[in-house]
Amino acid sequence: MEFSSKLLENAVNEVAMLPGIGKRTAMRLVLHLLKQPNEQTQMLTEALTKMRNEIIYCQNCHNISDNVICEICNNPSRDHSIVCVVEDVRDVMAIENTRMFKGIYHVLGGKISPIEGISPSQLNINSLIQKVKENKVSEIIFALSSTMEGDTTNFYIYKQIKEYKVNISTIARGISVGDELEYADEVTLGRSLLHRIPFESSIKPM
Ligand SMILES: [Zn+2]
C-alpha cells in the first residue's frame, strides 16, 4: 500500500495491529475518523488511554474491575467455595448473563498455547492452585472453550489439584467443539453449567 502521507501511514499501521483488522479496514477506519469532528478522535484516544492506565484486575479472581476486589467477589450472597475457571472477562460476562451461576470466577487471562508461546507461568494458574491448597474451594468448574488449548489448560490444572479434596467438573457441551463461550447462547450456556459433568469422565483417552 502506497501512502501519500507518513502520518496517515503510521495511523493505519497502528490500527492494523489489532486482531481481525487488515490494512484495508484500518484505512477505512482512519479515513472515517478524519471525516468526523476532531473531538471524536480525542474521545476515542482518551477512553483507550484512561482504560489502559487505570484498569484494575481483581486481586481475588483477576477479572477486569474498577476496584481492587470486584463486585462478584465482594458479594456475600455468592458461594465463594464454587469457582468457575474461565479464560477472560468475556466468559465472565457470558456466564453472568445466564443468571444460573452463584459461585465466583477465576480468570486465567488466556490458555496454554505452545504455538503462541503462552506458558502456564504467564497465566493466573498458581493463585488458583493456592486457593485449592488452602481448602477455600469445594468445587472447580472448568469453563474454557473446548479447543486443544482449552483441553491442555484444563488438564494441566487438573493434574495439580486432583490430589486435593475438591470436586472437579467441566461444563457439559451443548456447543460444538471449538466454539468460543462468548458465542454460545444464554440458554445453552446456562444448561451446560447446570448439567456439568465430573472432569475425569470428560477426559478423552489419549
Ligand atoms: Zn473478583
Question: What key phrases describe this protein's structure?
Answer:
single chain, 206 residues, alpha/beta, Helicase, Ruva Protein, domain 3, Dna Topoisomerase Vi A Subunit, Chain: A, domain 2, 2 domains, five-stranded mixed sheet, two-stranded antiparallel ribbon, 7 helices, 7 strands, 40% helix, elongated, binds zinc ion, DNA repair, metal-binding, TOPRIM_RecR, DNA damage, zinc ion binding
Quick recap:
The protein is of the alpha/beta class and 206 residues long. The protein is 40% helix and 13% strand.
User: Could you give the order of strands across the largest sheet?
Assistant: 4-3-5-6-7
Please give the CATH class of the largest domain: Alpha Beta
- Separation of the first and last Cα atoms: 48 Å
Task: Show unreliable segments.
Answer: none
As for the number of domains, it is 2
What is the number of beta strands?
Answer: 7
Helix fraction bin:
25-40%
Ligands bound, unique: zinc ion
Mind telling me which CATH architecture of the largest domain this is?
Answer: 3-Layer(aba) Sandwich
Pfam families: RecR_C (PF21175), RecR_HhH (PF21176), RecR_ZnF (PF02132), Toprim_4 (PF13662)
Function: May play a role in DNA repair. It seems to be involved in an RecBC-independent recombinational process of DNA repair. It may act with RecF and RecO.
InterPro entries: DNA_Rcmb_RecR, Rcmb_RecR, Rcmb_RecR_Znf, TOPRIM_dom, TOPRIM_RecR
Keywords: DNA damage, DNA recombination, DNA repair, Metal-binding, Zinc, Zinc-finger
